[in-house]
Design a protein that fits this description.
Length: 337
């Protein structure tokens, strides 16, 4: 089997840590590997049986490498990605930098794998909330054509990074001990035992950037601008696992029973839907898992062609690191690298 030279940019962040684990778990065919980060340069990191020294990104960081997995934020990606691609290294970027660029594919392998074929050196990984929503929605869309989606998300703090995880845990400890929270820094308000109806900055239409990402990315990935979608995104004090309440209106009638049958056994989806046993997806069960978990599927009795569902996934795995690596695997399978 051919092996590939791989670079991880943002190797010490929450997603970078997951990149390293998943590459090993999936036996990704690696020859050489390089870890790049903006902090802790010189740190020795174990990768399987190897010890790898973290380097700072430079002009020659990507020469001789085949695939780069980026998770260092949009600003860094905008500065470095084209340089990496110009050196012959295919960049799969986990930031928002390139997602809506019409020249760059935005890919969920289970949804639009064909789009990797027209890449020009950079492929964008979608927003975590968009990824998990589209696995079940694409299957429904292919059968019944989706007209409208109303989604409310309940997103874990790990989506903001390691500092947010630490702040949530520290605040929870303060509150459990009857103390006022000692630090509110990452978010505009206390996150422990709270719910913040703001993810990312607000824009002129009253929505947040996160909410509009879900709207715009859905249309691009699905290749259908006729889909109407509105989103409300909420940050909650969960460490791993985003949850979504999704209401779908379709052109063709599809029942809850038909949706369950449609989703059962499909790649990347686990159906957890038995109300009689109180079985439904929860972040505590999805954490550390690769699949998107779908349940609470029921007919929307307020309209003729409507379905409600509850969708949960580990935002750091399928929502970020795993999807990125699956794109790399797709490139290999198609002989594009």
């Amino acid at each position: 089997m051919k092996k590939y030279n791989v670079v991880i940019l943002g190797a010490l962040g929450a997603v970078g840590n997951e990149f390293r684990k998943i590459l090993l778990q999936r036996n990704f065919p690696i020859d050489k590997i390089k870890f790049l980060d903006l902090t802790d340069v010189g740190t020795q990191v174990q990768f399987g049986e190897r010890m790898v020294t973290v380097e700072a990104p430079g002009d020659d960081s990507f020469k001789g490498y085949d695939i780069a997995l980026f998770s260092a934020g949009a600003d860094v990606s905008l500065k470095v990605a084209k340089q990496a691609a110009a050196s012959g290294c295919i960049v799969i970027d986990n930031s928002s930098a390139w997602r809506m660029d019409p020249e760059i594919p935005l890919v969920v392998p289970e949804v639009n794998p064909h789009d990797v074929e027209w890449h020009k050196g950079i492929i964008a990984n979608p927003n975590c909330s968009t990824i998990q929503m589209l696995l079940p929605l694409k299957l429904i869309h292919d059968v019944a054509k989706i007209k409208r989606v109303v989604v409310s998300t309940y997103q874990a703090v790990s989506g903001t990074g390691i500092k947010a995880i630490e702040e949530c845990r520290n605040q929870a400890l303060d509150v459990s001990q009857g103390k006022p929270v000692s630090k509110v820094d990452v978010y505009p308000h206390q996150i422990a035992f709270n719910a913040l109806p703001q993810i990312d900055d607000f824009i002129e239409n009253g929505y947040t950037k996160e909410e509009m990402k879900m709207v715009n990315e859905t249309r691009k990935i699905m290749g259908d601008d006729s889909i109407r979608l509105t989103a409300t995104t909420v940050r909650i004090p969960v460490i791993y696992g985003h949850s979504e309440s999704i209401n779908v209106e379709t052109e063709k009638k599809i029942t809850a029973a038909e949706v369950k049958a449609l989703l059962k056994g499909k790649p990347g989806i686990t159906l957890v839907d038995d109300p009689s046993k109180k079985e439904y997806p929860m972040p505590i069960n999805a954490a550390g898992q690769d699949d998107v978990f779908v349940g609470r599927i029921r007919n929307d009795e307020s309209i003729d062609n409507g379905i409600n569902m509850w969708v949960v996934s580990d935002n750091i795995r399928k929502g970020a690191a795993l999807n990125t690596i699956q794109i790399a695997e797709l490139l290999i399978a198609k002989g594009l690298v």
